[in-house]
Amino acid sequence: MTIPCEIRSWLSGFSHLFFSLKPLQCAVRTRHMKTYYTILDCPEDASLAELKRAYFAQIRRVHPDKIDDVEQLDESLADNLVTAVSKAWNLLKDPESRKKYDCWLREQRLKESRAVIGEEVKLCELDIDEPCRCGGYFEVSEAELDQIVDSALFDCAHCSLCLKIYA
Ligand SMILES: [Zn+2]
């Protein structure tokens, strides 16, 4: 048995999301931001029932037990997918945390459209007080770091430059 074609292509889209080590390119800036809704493959105005359906559908899709040809899949990739899907569901099923997340997404999109990016850094290389070239520091909260699916923008506390952090 092999992994059906559609799952294979879905997974390869996902692996890009988590394991992209490509150099940071301008093109990255213009593509659509990936979100927890993207992970559940579900519109942002979905009802709770729709989110739940999407969650179970995605879990079935990515769960190693459900994929016959699991040896062909990178095991850590499969684990990451399950973790990401579960995390998306846990965040979005709670109306309060979903509201906060939606708000954060709106802010991020606004920044994305007008921000001047001063620095770019990968999450794993992030300093807790990431310095800005103006001599100030970027304001990065741990709670926000947790919401990054592929990248996010953070303001400098002292000037108009932004820091772009890649997951
Ligand atoms: Zn600054």
Automatic annotation (TrEMBL):
Domain J: 35-105
InterPro entries linked: DnaJ_domain, DPH_MB_dom, DPH_MB_sf, J_dom_sf
Protein's UniProt keywords contain Signal: no
Tree of life domain: Eukaryota
Pfam families: DnaJ (PF00226), Zn_ribbon_CSL (PF05207)
The DPH-type MB domain, residue ranges: 131-167
SUPFAM superfamilies hit by this protein: Chaperone J-domain, CSL zinc finger
UniProtKB keywords: Iron, Metal-binding, Zinc
Tagged with keyword Transmembrane helix: no
MF GO annotations: ATPase activator activity; ferrous iron binding
Family of the protein in this entry: Belongs to the DPH4 family.
Stated name of the protein: J domain-containing protein
Species whose genome carries this gene: Steinernema carpocapsae
